[in-house]
Known about the structure:
Elements: E1 2-6, H1 12-24, E2 29-33, E3 38-40, E4 46-48, E5 51-52, E6 63-66, H2 72-77, H3 80-91, E7 95-99, H4 103-108, E8 116-117, E9 131-132, E10 137-140, E11 143-146, H5 152-164, H6 166-176
Parallel strand pairs: 1-2, 1-6, 2-5, 6-7, 7-11, 8-9
Antiparallel strand pairs: 3-4, 10-11
Amino acid sequence: xxxxxxxxxxxxxxxxxxxxxxxxxxxxxxxxxxxxxxxxxxxxxxxxxxxxxxxxxxxxxxxxxxxxxxxxxxxxxxxxxxxxxxxxxxxxxxxxxxxxxxxxxxxxxxxxxxxxxxxxxxxxxxxxxxxxxxxxxxxxxxxxxxxxxxxxxxxxxxxxxxxxxxxxxxxxxxxxxxx
Length: 179
C-alpha cells in the first residue's frame, strides 16, 4: 500500500500532483491526515484525507510519500504516526519519498545516510549523511527526493516508474504534456 501524508501547511501542488499521477497509473494511494482527516494546505486549500492518522495501521507499507511546504514539513517531522510509518517502511525495504522541505524528515532520522538526495534550497543541513546533488528529482535505491513544487510532476512520474514501470510512466507523461 502507498500512503501520502498530509499535515497542516503542506504544499498543495507537491501533494496533489503526485497523488493524481499515481492514481492515473492505477496505484491505490491512501492519503493520511496528520491530526485529522481535514487538512489545510499552505495556500488555504483544504483537503479531505482518506483517513486520519489515528486510523493508520500498516506495518509494512510499500511506499511513504511526504509533500513539502511549511509548516507542513515541520508538522510531518513532529508526527509520531509519520515516524512510525517511516520506521515500518524502512524495516520492510519500502520506498521513502519526499519533496521540497520534506526530505529533512528523512534526513533527521538517518534514512538518507550515504544516499544521493535533493531538497528545497536552504534545507540541505537537515539531510544528514546524504550526498546532496543539484538534480531536480533524485533516486537512490528506495529513496526518492525532489527539489520542490516546480518538479512535482517529474516527482510523481518517478514514483509511477518505480511502482509500475517506465512504459506506464511514459504513457502518463505523454497524456499530460500538451504536445
